[in-house]
Amino acid sequence: MTADARIAAAKTASGSDLIALCFDADPRVIHAVLENHTSGLEHARWIAQQHRTKTGIEMVSRRSEFLRDALVERRLLRNPQCGDVTIGRILSPKRIGATYKIAIDRDIPELTRIKSRAALRKKWQSSPPEDRAELVLRTDGRCLTLLIGCAFDAKSTQLICAKQVVSVLLVTNFCKFPATPPAILAHLIKQPFVRKNPGLRKMLLQHPNMPGEVKRQFV
Question: Which residues, other chains included, contact 158 with Cβ-Cβ below 8 Å and sequence gap of 6+?
Fold first, then answer.
């Protein structure tokens, strides 16, 4: 069939014929499939998985009812042709924790993960302090490796300092993060398990943001 014939067929086809047209490489055919009044989630899922042009993929992302489907979202993100517009539509409504999960998902192409990390850093600046603190604590600070160049606000710092810390990994990640606030460093070194661990104490004291008065207590 010629391209024009496939486009015409996609506008009126149904059943297995319409599903077959979801595998077409021409984005104009994909557009016609999505305009077909019988098309729905099943067709969007096939297109998200199989189609290989940014234009066709972007057409799926225009429909909010498709983006609300977890399988469509996952297949779009795993599609190597997932472009900036589509990534933006997927990530825009998500909270910072969900964005972080996408940014570290190894089933997603590296380029998409890189773009997701950029979105994560932007969300860090605009997310509520409660969401920021929760992300850091729930990931034991693993997220900090993707947040280099970002800073903590006073409220997030306060929320973290209000928690008793029992995670060696969290302390280690705070030690490696250049922008760890002095208040958090002072809070960490007071934790009972840190006081009993010379290695952790040394790492904390070597952090350039550790307050001088705290350092003098351990000299």
Answer: 129, 183
Tally of domains in the chain: 2
DSSP string of 72-97? HHHHHHHSTT--HHHHHHHHTTS-HH
Concatenating the DSSP letter of every residue in 167-211 gives -HHHHHHHHH-TT--HHHHHHHHTSHHHHT-HHHHHHHHTSTTS-
Segments forming the whole domain that contains residue 16: 1-81
CA distances (Å), 47 to each of 20, 28, 109, in order?
10, 13, 17
76 and 8 in a single domain? The answer is yes
Q: What is the pLDDT of residues 55-108, one digit of tens each?
A: 999 999 999 999 999 999 999 999 999 999 999 999 999 999 999 999 999 999
